[in-house]
Amino acid sequence: MAQGILVIAEQRRGVMSPVTQELIGAARAVKADIGGSLSVAIIAGDPKALADSVKLDGVDEVLLLPVEANEFQPDLHVAAALQAVEERDPALVLMSHSVDGWGYGAALAVRAAAGFATDVFAIQVDDGEVVAVRGAYGERAHAKIEFPGRERVVLALRPSAFTAAEGATDCSVTTLAVPDTAVRSRHLEFIDPPSEGGVDIPAAEFILSIGRGVGEEENVEEFAELADQVGAVLGCSRPIADAGWLPKARQVGYSGKTASSCRLYLALGISGSVQHLAGMKHIENIIAVNSDANAGIFNVARYGVVGDMFEVGQELRQHFD
Amino acid sequence: MKILVPVKQAALVEDDFELRDDGRDVDPDFVDLQLNEWDDYSLEAALQLKEANDGIEVVAVTVGDDDTEDALRTCLAKGADRAIRIWDDVIADADPLVIARVLAAVAQREAPDLVLAGTQSSDLGFSATGVAMAAFMGWPHAAVVVALDYAPGAATAIVERELEGGLRERLEVDCPAVLTIQLGINTPRYASLRGIKQARSIPIEELSPDELGLEDQDIGEQARGSRVREMYLPDKGQAEMIEGTPAEQAARIAAIVKEVMGG
Amino acid sequence: MPEVSPDMAALVRRVVERRDAYAAAGLIAGNCTATTGKLLGIALPDRATRLIFAGLPFSPEGLLEELGGRADAAIRRRLARNPATPPGVLVRLLRERPEPGLNPLLAANPRMPANMLADLLSDGQEATARAVAGHPQAPAELLAGLAESGGPAVLRILAARRGLTPDLLGRLWLHGDRHVRAELLRAEACPGQLLMAAAHAPFPLWRRRVASHPAAPEGACQRLLHDPDATVRAAVAESPLTPVSRLYPLLLDPSGRVRRALARRRDIPPSWLDSLARQPGNWLRRWVARNPRCPRQMLEQLAYDPAADVRRAVSRNPASSAFLLARLAADPEAWVRAGAAGRDDLYPSVLQRLADDPAVDVVSAVAANPSTPGPTLLALARHRDRDVRRAVALNPRVPVAVLDSLVEDPYPLNRFVVARCDALSATALEALTGDPEPRIRFLAWKRLAELAASR
User: Fold this and answer.
1) Could you tell me which of B61, B130, B136, B68 has the C-alpha nearest to residue B96?
2) Which of A212, A223, A225, A271 best tests the C interface by mutation, with the highest count of C CBs <10 A?
3) How far apart are CA C150 and CA C131, in angstroms?
4) Domain limits at B42?
5) Is the peptide bond before B176 cis (omega within 30 degrees of 0)?
């Protein structure tokens, strides 16, 4: 009978990703209900160098799985994870719902004949059975997912949804040999995002975006100034670019251009067309200001303000030099 | 050569919706169906390869009931050569692993040189089907591809994956392979009106899992990696409404800006 | 006007044949009164479609009335929210005494008749009270009652109402906290002695409100010009009522915010603009370069500014000459060239040259420019970039033939823009009746029905 929890740590360029701490935190929270021990597997060229960073409260054992690649490689990642699964026979495997996670999680689940759910933001244990909670239809609904007939479940957890584990602990470290595996893709290089130059909506971390509510061209300058004041990159919706008031490079959702690095999105006077939402609805912190309480943008926003974008903008500038 | 493009007729749920009577999904009356956004990009990547090289056949495939035929018609209207639809009631409410198993069987039958799938679906967003399909087929795979350099018949493709924070990774993948395509890799075309008309008369191949040699143990209840126990509406509406006068609202926004962005 | 206008009976016949819900809804919206029953049947074939039309702000009244007669809870919610729902339907929904959650939606609908609001308010819900407090036609006595009994949120909504009466303002001042009072200081009805007192208040927000008030007493303004808080001085600088002669001290104000506010004023002397343009900070020069009062000589200097945003501002300044625009049309920065390309007073030869610019922002501006000649627009209507083609459709002087050529544009949004153009021919509308996009078909059928009805 499978027992215990296996966390698959995530690292890149020799640095442990912060999500790993959250995976351990999530594991610790359900450890008593699942039963058994908590192992953390590090798959890397030199896993030993990263071992200390995962010796956190609740961890019983660190598994080192050395592979012939420093960076993420799906064949090796699956082979190593399978090896750890075979050795420890966990009931629950936790991994990150991240770009690298998307690159191997489903393959691991298939190969391990495990139950599988992704983008999980809460885990419940009902009578010993794992139930995962995830969003559906752009978070309009939540779904409880069950895994009937599965002895083992692989869950890819949403980053920032679980409390990170803290507190160092002393635990055993074991090295497991990864079986010889055909490597069918090779990392060539990382390409860092360009640091500056031109308008770059995909690279912007904070975007202040304006829509039709701005009314006329002269007013656009006022919000361009506000964006400068608050330290945001100015973005816009299609009607503003169509009117020639701002360049198309600033149009969020233009030609599939998504605000992919954005942490905070302040939408002023944007009602929220499908195209625009496609470019920004994934952002964690969206603040929408719109005079129409029924505007679609409020369905994707974390914070909503029903009000006049000029009045709110005018007051907002008082808080920044 | 042949490129297989698995697509999904994705469900767009309206703002104000109700759940199905069994509580496991949204009431279909509140759903608008359209081709998954990511599949616009994977199909476009396939069509661009087809246009740049001679002798490439693009085959779109979906797993779904009658209502999903429109997704395939859209692909045909844009320039896909053929379309295949697989269905059997036993697949209703299937999870991504079962869908991937069916798609792998289609791939076995079609023997493509490349599979281009969307990175995720816009409705349920599992980000799983393409990579699971590769696992069932035993093929190499790369996920979240934003640049593709591939010559038909070549032993490898050079691709770029989009990682967190705008970072990219360039890598070489052995072919044949399954690549999951990310938004922004290209500018998807819209079907011309003539293409839409022509697509209406192109027959869609309809197959059952049985005809693909799949058995109940491959696609039935026990093959599912997961099942929805229940769906429910989140406790409160999505947005936390910031009340007050404009000055009070702005003060709160300023506080959020400072909290999230620091400083 | 098209030569042949369509025949209503023939339109109806065709819609009945096609059984297209959006076509039927379009005919109803286009004042087709014949066989409405049959059309309604086609427009509302199933619950999914009924739900859609109940929520669409462009649904025709006839359809919404039909929906009001047989609404389930989800349809009722959508009708209650829809600003197109006729007052009669809203009243009917209220009379049916439905689920309590509907009342706030009904009260917030601007078409809800004012005489029903008291009835709604009697439900005792806070959400309903808020909606009534914000209803544009709410009767004075209801508002007065809300000012006496309402919580902080209700008082805020009341204070934000336009056209506050002195009576309501008085009640709100009495019951409101300092944030409510700050809102009241914006009201036209705010008495002079309140404003005078507020000019001495310890809250910068209050003083800022006084500085912006059109009826601020003379003494208050004089005082606020020297206010220690920069946000207050900026409000003085912005207020169009402050005579410009008084603002001289602000020209060298330590706060950039104050000087930027000054640079935006339309009535300041050229010598001041010159002084501001020499001060550090791109934004000052951006505002000066936008200012229509900016003298020609200064604009010519600013057209060489190292900051592209400043040059862009010059390109959008109505005082910039065609000669200056020609120079900006050759700017290395595309966004500056785009600014010039959008000017209808550009030399025709320059406009023509910009039509071949490599930057899509520039070509789009040419396509939307009313001075662009027809043959150029016809060529741009076939541009490979869909945004350029749409800009042609949005051009107010686009020739009908060019517009008609866009009805087969592969990009649905472009066809939608075309379908809304008044100049479109009946033949082109006819071509759009079979469009794959429901919204476009709706518009095409609606407009054809309107043409038929006007025969």
Assistant:
1) B130
2) A225
3) 12
4) 2-233
5) yes
Averaged over A122-128, what is the pLDDT?
94
- Asked if A247 and C361 come within 8 Å (Cβ–Cβ), the reply is yes
On whether both A211 and A157 belong to a single domain, the answer is no
Residue B173 falls within a domain, yes or no? yes
pLDDT of residue C173: 97
pLDDT at site A258:
78
Residue A41 banded pLDDT, cuts 50, 70, 90: very high
Contact A244 C365 (CB under 8 A): yes
Of B221, B225, B231, nearest to A141 by CB-CB distance is B231
B neighbour chains, 3+ CB pairs within 8 Å: A, C
Residue A259 and residue A133 share a domain:
no
| Closest-approach residue (CA) in chain C for B70 | C436
What ipTM was predicted for this assembly? 0.94
pLDDT at C119 over 90: yes
pLDDT at A113 over 50: yes
Residue burial A35-66, b: 16+ Cβ < 10 Å; e: rest: ebbbbbbbbbeebeebbebbbbebbebbbbbb
Residue A166 and residue A38 share a domain: yes
Q: Report how far residue A243's alpha carbon sits from residue B128's, in angstroms, rounded to the nearest whole number.
A: 40
C94: CB partners within 8 A, 6+ apart:
C103, C106, C112, C116, C119, C120
Average pLDDT on B216-239 reads 88
Which member of C286, C368, C391 has the closest CB to residue A221?
A: C286
Q: Taking CB atoms and an 8 Å cutoff, what residues of chain C touch A198?
A: none
**The pLDDT of residue B263:** 62
Q: How far is A244 from chain C (nearest CA, A)?
A: 6
Spatial distance between the Cα atoms of A54 and A36, rounded to a whole number of angstroms:
18
Domain count for chain A: 2
CA distances from C113 to B41, C57, C85, C317 (A): 49, 18, 12, 46
What global pTM score does this model have? 0.89
Q: A248–C361: do the CB atoms touch at under 8 Å? A: yes
Domain that residue A106 falls in: 5-175
Using DSSP bridges, classify how beta strands A264-268 and B2-6 pair: parallel, antiparallel or unpaired.
unpaired
Q: Which of A159, A175, A191 is the last residue of a domain?
A: A175
State whether residue A12 is helix, strand or coil.
strand
Q: Given a cut of 50, is residue C125 above it in pLDDT?
A: yes
Q: Pick left, alpha or beta for residue A122 (phi over 0 → left; psi -120 to 50 → alpha; otherwise beta).
A: beta
CB B95 within 8 A of CB B25: no
C346 Rama sector, left if φ>0, alpha if ψ -120 to 50, beta otherwise = beta
